[in-house]
Amino acid sequence: MSIPKVVVTYNIGEEALAILKKHPMELVLWSEDRNAPREWLVENIPGAVGLLCMLTDKPIDGALLDIAGPNLQVVSTVSVGYDHIDFQALSQRNIKLGHTPDVLTEAVADITVMLALMASRNGRIAVEAVEAGKWPSTPWSLFAFCGPQISSPGYTVGFVGFGRIAQATLRRLRSFGIDRFLYNNTGRGSSRESADVDLRQQFNLKELRRVELDELAAECDLIITLTPGGALTHHLVNESFLRKMKKTAILVNPSRGTVVDSNALALALKESWIWAAGLDVVEGEPNVGLDHPLVQQPRAVLLPHIGSATFETRIAMACTAAENLIRALAGEPLLAEVKQ
Ligand code: DGY
């Protein structure tokens, strides 16, 4: 009997590797801290029973699965998002899909708050002023660098998508005194009335309720998109949404770049329809150069998709993905499996 082959497309670190190595298998590793080239994947995947991949391996589609052949039982991605994977193509072939929710919730909620503060308090403009040596010629001045205060009375936060990370963010924002939250969600788990009653009581909230996107856009001082990527959420934040937002409002996107129309957002910032934006993701990433319309907007704070980038979280993500893969091959329930 031949040893089952598992293909790993990245350096997943010693902890996750140790999980895989406990089991008899031929491990085909791309062990660099950069993506495996497509040709390498195409060359190595035929006959594999398992694929452990990154969100940057895209697309994992029917064509690649056909190259892999009928032995493939599981694709395990080191990410919670799986918009890089054709889930239908996997289902049609009875291939399981593992992902890594939960372990990254707190890290992404942390960076969401950081982006909200950076964007509202002119973080980018202020840091750039120091880096450009402008501090000596820009002494403390009463209204320079001012922005809206997120802990001001009546401040309202809106979530587009209200899953685990949004709720972890709500918990953090509550400690700023914010007690009014609106959200819009669709799809699985969208009916959550009793859960909302619990949240309202637990955090002593003045308001928590589901609203339509138009109301959310118009009512909120801070809008946070925490929704999966893909066709259903493509450009949920578009020109018409942005035009409805308050002039003092902040948009924060720590989820997927495709949720926000970049060109519309750049125009919104340029023409001051809104105050600022904090973005950990941008459509078309990583191709975001200095000429990108959002990079050109001083009130856009951009990070290169580092929401989950703490040592603890990334190790936990890699280990969860390794464990998912092993469990799928053993016919056991995964730690986290994407299901229909
Ligand atoms: C994910 O896991 O999908 C995130 O975008 C990466 O942190």
Descriptive overview:
This protein has 340 residues and is α/β, with parallel strands linked by helices. The protein folds into 2 domains: 5-103 and 312-329, NAD(P)-binding Rossmann-like Domain (Rossmann fold); 105-302, NAD(P)-binding Rossmann-like Domain (Rossmann fold). The protein has 12 helices and 12 strands. The strands form 2 sheets. A 7-stranded parallel sheet has the order 8-7-6-9-10-11-12, sandwiched between helices. The chain has a 5-stranded parallel sheet with strand order 2-1-3-4-5. Helix 11 (262-270) links the parallel strand 10 (250-253) and strand 11. Helix 1 (13-21) runs parallel beside helix 12 and helix 5 (105-120) packs across helix 7. It is globular, with a radius of gyration of 22 Å. The two termini are 33 Å apart. The model has no long low-confidence stretch (mean pLDDT 96). The site of (2R)-2,3-dihydroxypropanoic acid has 7 residues, from loops. (2R)-2,3-dihydroxypropanoic acid (DGY) binds at residues 55, 79-81, 104, 307-308.
Task: Describe the secondary-structure layout.
Layout: E1 5-8, H1 13-21, E2 26-29, H2 38-44, E3 50-53, H3 62-68, E4 74-77, H4 87-92, E5 96-98, H5 105-120, H6 123-131, E6 156-160, H7 164-174, E7 180-184, H8 193-202, E8 207-210, H9 213-219, E9 222-225, H10 239-244, E10 250-253, H11 262-270, E11 276-279, E12 300-302, H12 311-329
Parallel strand pairs: 1-2, 1-3, 3-4, 4-5, 6-7, 6-9, 7-8, 9-10, 10-11, 11-12
Helix pairs in contact: 1-12, 5-7
The structure holds (2R)-2,3-dihydroxypropanoic acid (DGY).
